[in-house]
Write a structure and sequence with these properties.
single chain, alpha+beta, 10-stranded mixed beta sheet, 3-stranded antiparallel beta sheet, 14% strand, disordered N terminus, binds adenosine-5'-diphosphate, binds magnesium ion
Length: 777
């Protein structure tokens, strides 16, 4: 299938894979998977014969679809990553464009496969795993200098939104920035208003992913839209070059979570939904059109009919290595849809792409290189022929030198040079500048070490950096790894700080709303997930602490051995050994021990790094769950408690069974409690958790992301210390919630805002209790 036509070009058809979503239904008679065929793999469906007009008889029909490989229900996320995404990532690292897209009906596992599940670290999907993989490679590859950027785009109703746009945070519907497409003279597309953000490491990239996902979730409410009808494109832009070279390789990796592929006629239509269904249909319809045109090698490919096909133009029949994952559900009611997904995939498999190595001479770099060469030739010439200069450096020259030194230090290229010419005064000045910088850094280091010491409790548990640096074969103890050792402590302090800040900054939630939140929380579908993750975090913190202790121990013993080694050498020198040349057996033993300790040290550091990634991921999962909880509560609250303006309108409760987790049936109403319009920043509103840093803190891109609760701390449960005990209902509250509505009265305060909330709470609570008492149909 793949073939190298000419150097730097790979011709290949789009690779198709299928993944079957796990189900509890008995499905052994309905479908089968075969991965052993020589020609590839296949999935086969056995369904009742459809005689047309909806009549079905007892005859069965078989449908078989071929794929490169089919992942059955038990396939794990790691296997999916290794088989599907890793080869694409490798090509992207080599300078080719890559795309992986998931296609299938709503609920068939597209998001689970591309981004991952919200429940646990092990559920993380292709995006986080690919990021990990890419950055690991980037760090290890010393022959290349890489820069990475990220964008995250959502297409909804044929309108593009930039999910990384900070404006989304404080925005109202009408101000939502949209991304527009422009075609340049060479028919390349340009996306205007799409922010492409640099991400220097895995952590920053993950933060961007979570930031975008959180925006997606909140914008969902803002637009009253369903995420199942939007397409999301997460793109990594990689730029690599060899140090000193002007040849750059630029590649792009699109990871695409398409909208649900189900047909319009399957959905309950009406009003807004119809427009969306129409658009989604249009959007996917054009994707299909492009794919059909490509698979039939037609002359005209209608890329420009929709935004999505414009954006993915390269991925479909162009300069890209593309892979499609068909996600299918084998529940009986979904079989028809699953077969149409497979049929679509068969078409896609016919499309030929031609990926070229995206390598080019960067004119800016080239000019810079030529200038450097020119200058150094002039310098050499001056050195041979010129006179040394006598006069002092001017102020301008000094400033210019400062800029030069700064640029030199910031240049990631290890072979960067500081072109100073032959002027000795300039050279001396630069050394002075460098000396100043180094001593400034030393001071900062001392301060950091002191802080670390303090954070660590004893002040000397962590060996100062200088001691590490003098340890044999200096192994850098990554700042970030240190981060884990102290993060727990820091978090405790921060949570406490925020509690106080919240008190200072404004009134908390009124008591009524707060209690309602606690009751709401108790029934929420994510409660168990949050609790599980909390437990996992606690466990991981303990492990990280343990590892930290081990790291320190090993380092101490390396230092101890080193001292012994020195002593030994001094002794031997004193004794003036004749046989100096001979290996000292004692020294050999010590060296061996040092080696062993170093190995152990490295392995602890490796473990710590792995732990760190997991801790950060789980923290982000919790963060997202928290935002979701807030959002769900907000929706539920405004449904249960119509504001003063619309108090006459019947609440949903009176008309039917309420759903804690369902979306509101209407867009956020302006003026109903004032919380429908601006979703960010959450901490500006008196919302549950508002004193805990919200997802907006993700912006800081440093490992400061807070968990809702400091795992090691068991705070006394009280409704006023939610920072530490959101998940626990206090005994008093539990009692409260079992009191019959009639017995329950809260004195009003006279403050109309608080009283409104109290009354609203009483109403909501009564509704809730009534509902609990009536068995659900
Ligand atoms: P889609 O994005 O196609 O609408 P989702 O990825 O959101 O579907 O999946 C729907 C539900 O099924 C989610 O709750 C998800 O966690 C779960 N799910 C999907 N695929 C798997 C899988 N392979 N293993 C476990 N759970 C899955
Ligand atoms: Mg989805």
């Amino acid at each position: 299938m793949a073939g190298m036509a000419e150097k730097g070009t790979v011709k290949e058809t789009i690779q198709i894979f299928a993944r079957v979503k796990p189900t509890r239904e008995e499905t052994s008679k309905v479908y089968s998977v075969n991965n052993d065929e020589a020609a590839g793999a296949s999935v086969e469906f056995v369904v009742p014969k459809d005689l047309g007009d909806g009549y079905v008889n007892n005859k069965l029909e078989n449908y078989k679809f071929r794929f490169r490989r089919v992942f059955d229900q038990t396939a794990g996320q790691e296997e999916i990553f290794e088989t599907i995404a890793q080869p694409v990532a490798d090509r992207v690292l080599a300078g080719y464009n890559g795309t992986i897209f998931a296609y299938g009906q709503t609920n068939s596992g597209k998001t689970f496969t591309i981004t991952g599940g919200a429940r646990s670290y092990g559920d993380r999907g292709i995006i986080p795993r690919t990021l990990s993989y890419l950055y690991q490679h980037i760090i290890q590859d010393s022959t290349m200098v890489y820069t990475t950027h990220i964008s995250y785009l959502e297409i909804y109703n044929n309108v593009c939104y930039d999910l990384l746009d900070r404006q989304l945070e404080a925005c109202r519907l009408e101000d939502l920035p949209t991304v527009t497409i422009m075609h340049d003279s060479e028919q390349n597309i340009q996306l205007r208003n799409l922010s492409i953000q640099q991400s220097a490491n895995e952590e920053e990239a993950l933060n961007l992913l979570f930031l975008g996902d959180t925006h997606r979730m909140t914008a969902e409410t803002l637009l009253n839209k369903a995420s199942t009808r939007s397409h999301c494109i997460f793109t990594v832009y990689l730029c690599g070059r060899q140090p000193g070279s002007a040849t750059v390789r630029r590649s792009k990796l699109h990871l695409v979570d398409l909208a649900g592929s189900e047909r319009v006629n399957k959905m309950a239509l009406g009003g807004q939904l119809l427009t969306e269904a129409k658009y989604i249909n249009v959007s996917l319809h054009y994707l299909e059109q492009v794919i059909i045109s490509l698979s039939e090698s037609r002359a005209h490919i209608p890329y420009r009919n929709s935004l999505m096909t414009s954006v993915l133009r390269d991925s479909l029949g162009g300069n890209c290595m593309t892979t499609m994952i068909s996600t299918i559900s084998v529940d009986k009611t979904n079989l028809k849809e699953s077969m149409s997904t497979c049929r679509f995939a068969q078409r896609v498999a016919l499309i030929k792409n031609e990926a070229v190595l995206n390598e080019e001479e960067d004119p800016v770099l080239l000019i810079a290189r030529l200038k450097r060469e020119n200058q150094s030739l002039r310098d050499e010439l001056a050195m041979v022929t010129g006179e040394p200069r006598q006069e002092q450096l001017t102020q301008y020259e000094i400033q210019k030198l400062e800029v030069q030194v700064k640029d030199f230090l910031e240049d990631p290229d290890p072979e960067a040079t500081l072109a100073l010419g032959t002027d000795l005064q300039k050279i001396r000045r630069c050394f002075t500048l460098l000396k100043t910088i180094v001593s400034g850094l030393r001071q900062q280091l001392t301060i950091i070490q002191e802080k670390l010491g303090r954070a660590n409790g004893t002040g000397n548990e962590l060996t100062p950096l200088s001691a590490v640096a003098t340890a044999p074969d200096f192994i850098p103890l990554n700042e970030a790894v240190r981060g884990i050792l102290i993060s727990e402590k820091e978090e405790t302090e921060k949570t406490r700080d925020q509690d106080t800040t919240a008190q200072l900054n404004g009134p908390r939630l009124s008591i009524g709303k707060e209690e309602a939140f606690e009751i709401f929380m108790r029934d929420h579908e994510d409660r168990l997930t949050i609790e599980d993750n909390k437990a996992v975090l606690k466990q991981r913190y303990i492990e990280a602490k343990g590892l930290g202790v081990q790291v320190n121990k090993t380092r101490d013993s390396i230092n101890e051995l080193k001292k012994q080694l020195e002593m030994r050498r001094i002794q031997r020198a004193d004794q003036d050994h004749r046989e100096e040349e001979e290996q000292d057996p004692v020294e050999a033993i010590i060296l061996k021990q040092v080696e062993a300790e170093k190995k152990e040290f490295k392995s602890y550091i490796g473990d710590l790094k792995t732990l760190r990634t997991e801790i950060q991921h789980v923290q982000l999962l919790m963060e997202r769950a928290k935002v979701k909880l807030q959002k769900d509560f907000k929706e539920w609250w405004s449904e249960e408690t119509p504001g003063p303006q619309d108090s006459g309108a019947p609440s949903r409760l009176q008309t039917g069974r309420p759903s804690l987790n369902s979306k509101p049936s209407s867009p956020g109403r302006p003026g109903s409690g004032g919380h429908s319009l601006s979703y960010f920043p959450a901490h500006k509103q008196q919302e549950p958790y508002s004193h805990v840093p919200s997802a907006t803190d993700l912006r800081s891109f440093v490992p400061k992301i807070q968990t809702m609760q400091t795992p090691s701390e068991d705070r006394p449960a009280s409704s006023h210390q939610r920072g530490g005990s959101v998940l626990e209902l206090t005994p008093q509250l539990r009692d409260l919630s079992s009191i019959k509505p009639a017995d329950y009265s809260i004195p009003l305060t006279g403050d109309s805002r608080i009283d409104d909330d109290i009354l609203a709470f009483v109403r909501a609570r009564q509704n809730l209790l009534q509902r609990r008492d009536t068995p659900q149909q």
